[in-house]
């Protein structure tokens, strides 16, 4: 485990969340899970999603996630954006805006194509603004539309 590890407090969905996350993202695994009793529900666990270690706990309804913290998914291209977006939507996630989507467990993800980050690092502020303005109109990020905004600026 790394020195600093995100700790996620779920209501009572830790086991289902881990199963979904590890099935959705490569380089993922459940490292250990502590159950109540021999076959009771998982109360705490250590798991890896996309190479990032997490700790999780079923803390009850007192805890909830907010968009103040989100998980950023660096996607190679539009195909990878579409793949993760579709998997999240098919699992019951709610798209919000600007590449953000809230999964059925309440955790918010940012599904971002690497090309977007390249475009907004441009030294021309007019091009950056055009890309940002285009992104602000999107739900799922669209690389072709972002590149068009950049080219047209």
UniProtKB/TrEMBL annotation:
PhnB-like domain sequence ranges: 3-112
CDD domains linked: PhnB_like
Name assigned to this protein: VOC family protein
Organism: Gemmatimonas groenlandica
């Amino acid at each position: 485990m790394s020195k600093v590890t995100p700790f996620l407090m779920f209501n009572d969905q830790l086991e289902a969340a881990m199963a979904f996350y590890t099935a959705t993202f490569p380089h993922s695994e459940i490292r250990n899970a502590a159950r109540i009793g021999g076959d009771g529900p998982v109360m705490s666990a250590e798991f890896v999603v996309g190479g990032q270690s997490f700790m999780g706990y079923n803390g009850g309804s007192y805890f909830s996630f907010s968009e103040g913290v989100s998980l950023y998914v660096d996607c190679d291209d539009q195909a990878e954006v579409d793949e993760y977006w579709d998997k999240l939507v098919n699992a019951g996630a709610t798209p919000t805006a600007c590449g953000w989507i809230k999964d059925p467990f309440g955790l918010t993800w940012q599904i971002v194509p690497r090309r977007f980050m390249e475009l907004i690092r441009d030294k021309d502020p007019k091009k950056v603004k055009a890309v940002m303005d285009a992104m602000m109109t999107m739900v799922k990020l669209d690389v072709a539309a972002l590149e068009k905004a950049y080219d047209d600026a």
